[in-house]
UniProtKB/TrEMBL annotation:
Molecular functions per Gene Ontology: transmembrane transporter activity
Pfam families according to UniProt: Xan_ur_permease
UniProt keyword terms in alphabetical order: Membrane, Transmembrane, Transmembrane helix, Transport
InterPro entries assigned: NCS2, Xan_ur_permease
Protein name in UniProt: Solute carrier family 23 member 2 isoform X5
Length: 573
């Protein structure tokens, strides 16, 4: 009996038994990639906390840049404590949405949080004449209450636009439109849409970096060295196990946390320059410029829906935000198969993808209602962390959600990230936005780049999508149809580069004649192949709901619902 118990425990450690006690077949284990903990494995609680901290820190490195672009466009003061409230709200919503996604959504160990993709339509909306910031002198003469209302009315406009536009993403997931969407959203649509997210923000990166080019360039060099040159260098750390006790282990520190290490070191250098008075008073690189944010922030604050007032809805805002929603939808779909493979799970079935997109849309609705000023999307950084750490356990991400929830409530933590010196953030922007652009360009691997047809579509859709929105920003009152509503709608749509680029790429690729191989549809179809086989009664499947599967299988009608684990579009008689 003791031998059997020992063997059973060994099976749990090795991943032969999942968290629900179901056995895994030997065939699946042989196909399992080189990972320490698979998707259904449950590491010891103390290891879960440590590994959850890694995902939490990786998430912070990805989300911290968003408020630095969002808050100035909202006309907020640089030392306004509400800047910390916004980032705390983002992290709080990230915790809620990530837990729902991991437990009931696509059930992959992914993190759902704020995304750069929504910044492009956000800036287009805030560049409308009615939302542009007043003159600096006029804002300085405002009372504290007037300054607060100045940015909150803009946040309410964004919140309503984000929440309502995300209902389209919910619709796509709930009604299984993903397959139809992928027929028209081809690689030549994805390239301009995603790459322009990074390219469109070059002015924001230049503005932040130009505050002190020496510090910004040093940040870029350090981040490049850490992420590209030292990525395979291992450093010692301490690990504990019941069998071996404490021992020294070697891990890829620079590969795991290049952004955070860079920020911490450069922040420290800025601190030294501040102490030695090498930087003049009030310089953006000084560490004491925004110290008031930390001092004025309360220790505890629970974000809640409508905290900035009731969201307002305008048609121009909703249609503009749709560009961010569609970009995030395509990006997340591309992450699902990669994540599944990394954590030793089978390819995600169509019902899991549908459910994942629906939950992501629901998460963006919640982000809008909570007033984060942003939506939600799959963090590519955390997907990469799974490949590096070889830990793809769903339970680890659930632990990370608890850490995020705690951080979202402890308001001082959010304020800490807001006071990072601006030139350091500018250096991070230069690398991060470049990587986003490169991620979009990576879809070119599927198409024939020797085809003049493809080169024409790529070149025109990307270049014109930078030209037109740039002109629209400087000529916001150029469109005069006689209707203010129509004027606002057309101005926002034509000012949103990712929407212009995506529409041009989609229209040209689907209208100009070309073979499937030339357009990259064959290779793309293999990559994005949707599996629609339902789970069989008695078999465990990692994409099933954690509870209620027996009931769902008894209800035969659930096999026709696209987001149910029992979904089977082609039922055999």
């Amino acid at each position: 009996m003791n031998n059997n118990t020992h063997e059973e425990n060994s099976h749990v450690v090795l991943g032969l038994v999942d968290q629900n006690g179901h056995s895994k077949s030997s065939e699946k284990i042989e196909d399992r990639p080189d990972i320490t903990y698979g998707i259904d494995d449950v590491p010891p609680w103390y290891l879960c906390i440590f590994m959850a901290l890694q995902h939490y820190l990786t998430m912070i490195g990805a989300i911290v840049s968003i408020p630095f672009i969002l808050t100035p466009a909202l006309c907020m003061r640089e030392d306004d404590p509400a800047r910390g409230h916004i980032i705390s709200t983002m992290i709080f919503v990230t915790a809620i949405v990530t837990f729902i996604q991991n437990t009931f959504g696509c059930r992959l160990p992914i993190v759902q949080g704020g995304t750069i993709s929504f910044l492009v339509p956000t800036l287009a909306i805030l560049h409308l004449p009615q939302w542009q910031c007043p003159a600096e002198e006029q804002m300085n003469n405002m009372t504290s209450e007037e300054r607060t209302e100045l940015w909150q009315v803009r946040m309410r406009e964004l919140s309503g636009a984000i929440a309502v536009s995300a209902l389209v993403q919910v619709f796509i997931g709930v009604f299984g439109v993903v397959g139809v969407l992928l027929k028209y959203v081809t690689p030549l649509t994805i390239v301009p849409t995603v790459s322009l997210v990074g390219l469109s923000l070059f002015e924001n990166a230049a503005e932040a970096a130009s505050k002190h080019w020496g510090i910004s360039v040093s940040t870029i060099i350090m981040l490049t060295v850490f992420s590209q040159c030292l990525s395979e260098v291992k450093v010692p750390g301490i690990n504990y196990s019941k069998e071996e006790g404490f021992k020294i282990v070697w891990f890829n520190l620079f590969k795991l946390f290049p952004v955070l290490l860079t920020i911490m070191i450069m922040w420290g250098i800025c601190g030294l320059l501040t102490l030695t008075e090498a930087l003049p008073k009030g310089h953006p690189a000084r560490t004491d410029v925004k110290l008031r944010i930390l001092e004025d922030s309360s220790w505890f604050r629970v974000p809640y829906p409508g905290q900035w007032g009731t969201p307002t809805v305008s048609l121009s805002g909703v249609l503009g935000m749709l560009a961010g929603v569609l970009a995030c939808t395509v990006e997340s779909i591309s992450y699902y198969p990669t994540t599944s493979k990394m954590c030793g799970a089978p390819p995600p079935p169509v019902h899991a993808i549908n459910r994942g997109i629906a939950i992501e849309g629901l998460g963006t609705v919640l982000a809008g209602l909570w007033g984060s000023g942003n939506g939600t999307n799959t963090f590519g950084e955390n997907v990469g962390a799974i490949g590096v750490t070889k830990v793809g356990s769903r339970r680890v991400i659930q632990y990370a959600c608890a850490l995020m929830l705690l951080q979202g409530i402890i308001n001082k933590f959010g304020a800490v990230f807001i006071i990072i010196p601006e030139p350091v953030v500018g250096g991070i922007f230069c690398v991060m936005f470049g990587m986003i652009a490169a991620f979009g360009l990576s879809a070119l691997q599927y198409v024939d780049l020797n085809s003049s047809r493809n080169l024409y579509i790529i070149g025109f859709s990307m270049f014109f999508s930078l030209v037109l929105p740039k002109w629209m920003v400087h000529n916001a009152d150029a469109i005069r149809t006689g209707s203010d509503i129509v004027d606002s709608i057309l101005t926002v749509l034509l000012s949103t580069s990712i929407l212009v680029g995506g529409m041009l790429g989609c229209l040209l690729d689907n209208l100009i004649p070309g073979t499937p191989e030339e357009r990259g549809l064959v290779a793309w179809g293999e990559q994005m192949k949707l599996v629609s086989e339902p789970t069989v009664h008695g078999e465990y499947n990692t994409f099933d709901f954690p509870v209620g599967m027996a009931t769902l299988r008894r209800w035969k009608w659930t096999s026709y619902i696209p987001f149910m684990p029992t979904y089977h579009p082609k039922k055999k008689n």
